[in-house]
Amino acid sequence: MSLVIQKGTSLRADAMQRLKKNRAAVVGLYCLAIIVLACVILPFTPWLADPNAQDLIDKNLTPSARHWFGTDHLGRDIFSRVFFGGRISIAVAVLTTFVAVTIGVTYGAISGYAGQKVDAGMMRLVDVLYGLPFLVVVILLGKVLEEMTMKWSNKIVDLLTTDGATADQINEIRTAVEPLVTMVPLFLAIGALSWLTISRIVRAQVQSVKKLEFVEAARSLGLSHWTILFRHILPNCIGPIIVYTTLTIPGVMLFEAVLSFLGLGLKPPNSSWGVLIKEGSDMMLTNSWLLFFPSLFFSLTLLSLNFLGDGLRDALDPKSSKD
After folding, report:
1. Torsion sign (Cα): 167, 168, 170, 171
2. 41-49: long-range contacts (C-beta < 8 A, 24 or more apart)?
3. Which end of the chain has a smaller Cβ tally under 10 Å, C or N?
4. Could you tell me if 250 and 306 are in contact, meaning their C-beta atoms sit under 8 angstroms apart?
5. Angle at Cα 294 formed by Cα 292 and Cα 295, nearest 5°?
6. How far apart are CA 117 and CA 196, in angstroms?
7. Is the peptide bond before 46 cis (omega within 30 degrees of 0)?
8. Contact status, residue 209 vs residue 237, Cβ threshold 8 Å
9. 182 vs 153: CA distance, rounded Å
């Protein structure tokens, strides 16, 4: 009788297998990848129209072979504006979430590992920040830093512009640079105030993990606290962090859309999905395509991220799996 030795699988491989079984999460992942690649690649292709170029002769055109998503009241191509705007909305979401997760994970990990008085003091600061009016703080920071970001934008355009550049080339560089640079205050404001929830999540995870045997073994080997925390404890908390990150991105995108809808986000003539939805809502009764197409891409992105986050939660935490 021969023994059959089964090859073991890692936790990562098991998580991937569970994720692949979740059809909604897989469809969301593919849909999200297509939208992101389109928003990143298409704005750099030469055949895509200038999103800010006005042509009053072709204004308010319905979708056609020439203008796939139609044109607005100034004759601007909506197809081009949707993908240029998607690049801004996705950049805001990703960079802001990165700032929030970096601050929150570091703060929560230190609080949970230190314990006692340090933990109590750090969590009271979180409680105080929770009481601040989030929207008001974001608006104030945006106004305070608005002039500074405009100077940065002009300097970056000057650095990227060659001596013999034409006016069209300068406008093309400005179209690519200015929207991202002017949104820096929004990145900083939202990111600096969005880390509170993730810090509490990481703190709770660290407090439970630091009591396990492998942490005691690391201490017995004489490893420093920083090494134990960031090389041994935090990697075992990566599951909740990844899940929270995928669920934070749509929340940030929605918040940016709300600010743009209120006229507090991106400045015209530049566009984001929030700006396009705001413009489309003003003319939805006469030019419904102005609202339909940006809303479609925005909704698909949010749904994809939510499905993916739900799938990752089940895949990385077998106890909550529905299998």
Report:
1. positive
2. 42/83, 43/83, 43/84, 43/87, 43/176, 48/79, 48/80, 48/83, 49/77, 49/79, 49/80
3. N
4. yes
5. 60
6. 19
7. no
8. yes
9. 7
What's the rounded Cα separation, in Å, for the pair 55 and 71?
Answer: 9
Tokens of 86: 């998607």
Please state, in angstroms and rounded to a whole number, the distance separating the CA atoms of residues 50 and 81. 8
Global pTM reads: 0.74
| The CATH number of the domain covering residues in 14-43+78-320 | 1.10.3720.10
Domain boundaries, the chain: 14-43+78-320
Closest residue by Cα to residue 240 from 152, 295, 316, 134: 316
Angle between helices 238-261 and 184-193 (to 10 degrees): 130
- The whole-angstrom separation of Cα 243 and Cα 252 is 15
The distance of Cα 118 from the centroid of its chain, to the nearest Å, equals 31
Helix, strand, or coil (residue 66)? coil
Summarised one tens digit per residue, pLDDT across range 96-120 is 888 888 888 889 888 888 878 888 8
Summarize pLDDT for 263-304 with one digit per residue, the tens. 666 766 777 787 788 788 878 778 888 888 888 888 888 888
CA pair distance 101, 159, nearest whole angstrom = 32
Q: Which residue has the tokens 């015209």?
A: 268
What span, in angstroms and rounded, lies between the C-alpha atoms of 201 and 112? 10
CB 244 within 8 A of CB 252: no
